[in-house]
Amino acid sequence: MATYWSDAFSVGLVLALAFTLLALRRALRRERELARTDELTGIENRRAFYELTDREIRRVARYGKAFTVACFDIDDFKAVNDRYGHAAGDAVLRLAADTAKRTIRASDAVARLGGDEFAILLHETTPAASETVIRKLRMAIQRLVQVNGRRMTVSFGAVTCLEAPETVQALVSAADQLLYAAKRAGKNRARHRVLAAPPSPRAQGQMPLAC
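Above: the chain's sequence. Below: its structure in C-alpha cell form.
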C-alpha cells in the first residue's frame, strides 16, 4: 500500500510539474506576443515591424527577390482629435488598421509605428504590384473610414527594394521622406520609388533611389 501511494504521488508530482511548465510556456509566449503587438489596434508594433523587415532584407540579400515597405498616415488626423475627441481618433486608428490588415495578403504585414503612422511590408512585390496594393488600400480606407460622415484619406510613401538596403532604419526613413512629400503635394496621394542599389555610407542625407 505504501508503495502504491508513493507511485501515485510521484505520478501526480510529474503531472503537476508538466502542467506548470506548460502554463509557463504559454505565459511566456503570450508575453512575447504582447511585446510585439500595438495595444490600441491589435496589429504589430514598431519593434515587430523592424524585426520582420530585417528578416526580409536578409532574404533579399540571399535570394534577390523584390519587396516593398510603405509608410502611411491619416490626413488631418489631428483635426479629428481636436474636434471630436480622442475616442473618435482611436476609433479611426482601429478601423484604419483593420482595413489595412484585411486588404493586404495574409503573408504581408501591417504595423502601427506610432501616433497615426502605419507601415506595411509587402513580400516579393514588384513596383507595379505594390502600386496596385497601395491604390487599393487608399481607396478602401477612404470608403470605410469616416468621422461624422466625413471620409478620411491617407497619404503614402513607398519604397520597392530590388536589392537589399543597408538597414531597416534607412529604408523606413526613405519611405517616411516620400510620405512627407505626398503630404506637401496636397495629401490623399502616394509617392513611390525604387531602391536599385544599397545605400552608400558616403551619401549622407542622399537616398540612392530612382523613380
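Residues 2-35 form the longest helix (34 residues).
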